[in-house]
Amino acid sequence: MSRKFLETESPAWVADGLISAAQQQKLLARYPPEAQALGLLPILGSLLVGLSGLSVVAANWQGLPAALRLALLLGSLLGSYGAGAYFLRRGNPDLGHGLIGLGLILFGASIILTSQLYQLVGYDASGLLAWVVAGVALSYVYGSRLLVLLTVLIGAAVQTYCVESLGIFSYVTAWLVAAGLGYYWWRRPDVVTSTVLAVGLLWQAGLLIIVLHSKITWFFVPAMAIYAAGDWQSNRAGGRALQVPPLVAAYLFMFGLAIFGETDAYANILRPPLLPYLGALGAVLAVSVAGKRARGRLNSLPEWLLLLPGFYLPGGLPLAVATLVVLYAHAGSVLARANRDQDPEQLTVGAVLFVAATAVAYFKLTWGFMDKSLFFLVGGVLLLGLSWYLRRRNAQVLAAAGPVAEASATGPAGNLTDAPGPVAPVASSPSPENPPRND
Asked: Can you tell me the distance from the alpha carbon of 226 to that of 145, in angstroms, rounded to the nearest whole number?
C-alpha cells in the first residue's frame, strides 16, 4: 500500500463510515511521504561516489607507487566500513548499509588488484572465496537485504569466473550461497530476499549443468528442490516468493517445448536416462508434498504438472498435444484455486496463462489447415468470448468477496466494531401516545 493510494482513497472511506478520521491519520502516519525514495538515495549516492573515486584511481593506477596503491586500497576499505558503522550508530540504516555494501565491493576489488599488483597468478578461486565469505558474514551481522543482494551477485560472479575462466565448478561457493544465505532466508523470509536468493541459486544450478555437460532437463531437479524448500517455510509470503522463479523457469520450458518441440532433434539435449531422472525428481516431489501437507498447502500441488517429462514422447503431434494439455491443466488449476480463495490477483494470473495456452494451441493446431481469413476470424471470436467470460467471472468473485469483507468488519449487531460511527435512530415501539401509522 502506498501513501498516494491512501491519500486518494481514504477520504471516501471516512465518508462511507468505514474508518474514522483518527484512523485515517494513523494510516497516513504509517506511510510517510517518499519514504522509499529517501531510503534509496543514500545507497545510490554512496555507490556513485565510490565508483567515481575508483575510476579516478584506476585511470592513474599504473603510475602510482606500490605502497601508495596498498594504502589507497586499505584506506578506502576501512573508510567505508567505518563510515557505515558511524551512520548506523547515528540511526541512519539506509546510508550505513549502503556504505557497508560499498566496503564489501571494495574488498573484492582489493583482492583482485592486489593479485595484479604482485603478479599472483591463481588457478583456483581461493582468493575470491574470501569475498563470498565476507558477504555472508556481513549479511548476518547487519541483517541487510542490500548485503544479501550483493552477496548473491558476488557468488554468481565468482561462480561464472570459475566456469568461464577456470573450467571448474566451485562447490564451496555454491555451498556458501545455498547454506549460508539459505539459513538467513529461513530466519528472515521477506519477499525481496527470497526472490533474489532463488534467482541466484538457479544461476548456480545452471552453471553446474554446463560444467557437468549434463542434459539441460537435470536443471529442474535442483530448481524444484528450491521450490520444495518454499513449501516448508512457515512464512507463506517468503516461501511463495522463493517458489516463483523455479515455477517461471518450468513454465517457460514447457511453453517452449509446446512451440518448438516438433521433431526428435531435441532428444540428445533433453532426454536424460529415464529411471535416474524420474527417481531424483520423484524424491524432490516427495519432499515437496510432505512440506505442503505439513503447512496445509496441498491445494498448490497441481503446480507440479509443469514438471511432467513430456519430452520423452516423440516429436510432432503427440508432443504438442501433451504439452498443451499440461498448460491447460496448470492454467485451470490456478483459476480454480483463485476462485476458491477469492483471490483477484491469482485470477488474473490464471487468465493470462489460459490465454497463452490458447494462443499456442491456436497457432500450432489450426494454422496449417485453415484459411487465414477464417483463422483470424475464429481466433478473434474465441478471444472476445474468453475476455467476456473472464471479466464476468472476475466480477462474480469480487462481488462474492464484498459481503464477506463487510461481515468481517461488523459485529454481531451489524454495527462497525473498528470505530464508533453515527448510530442510526432506533424506531420507538408502538404506544398509546404514539400509535403505528399505516401510510
From this structure: 19
